[in-house]
Design a protein that fits this description.
- The structure is a single chain.
- This protein has about 200 residues and is mostly helical.
- It is about 70% helix and about 0% strand.
- The protein starts with 7 loop residues before the first helix and ends in an 11-residue tail after the last helix.
Length: about 200
Amino acid sequence: MVRAGLTAERVTIAGAELADEVGFDRVTMSQVARRLGVKDASLYAHVRGLEDLRGRIALLAADEKTVRIADATAGRSGRDALVAFANAWREYAHRHPGRYTATQTPIPIDPELAASAPGPRRAVELTYGMLRGYGLAEPDLTDAVRLLRSTFHGFVALEAAGGFAHARPAQQSWTRALDALHSLLEHWPPSREGDPA
């Protein structure tokens, strides 16, 4: 019998909380069931298994992160938007390390579930919208998105792993990195599509 009040959303939130505590890759169905005070089998009335749960956690996290970025960047443009965007990204990674990992992990997600989740689509719209403020168009937009994602994710991943042991505070390097990105985006080099790779 399914426990009253147990829903796919509750199972997903419990999995996301657990991911933040123990790491996204360490979440198991048994641990989530224990957290909710139910037997493992009760979860399968709401999620199809661990892969489905992982996909749901990733979509939840993408929605949460996107809402924070949207709130931070509302009404801003140029450097202000870039800094607000980046700081919201980094803050989410700090506060929710397991959920953040889920947003950066390739996971097979049920197409119907993915289609109903606004987070990933809105994240793309926000990122492209901010970069259009720098006057970029395709294919430069895609290249700039990849640069930002690589920089933000690389920084927070190294930071989380203790990779910045130098005496200079990581915050100062983060601020300088954002200054450098802003300068680069303002002076984006012309596309050289005909050049060899």
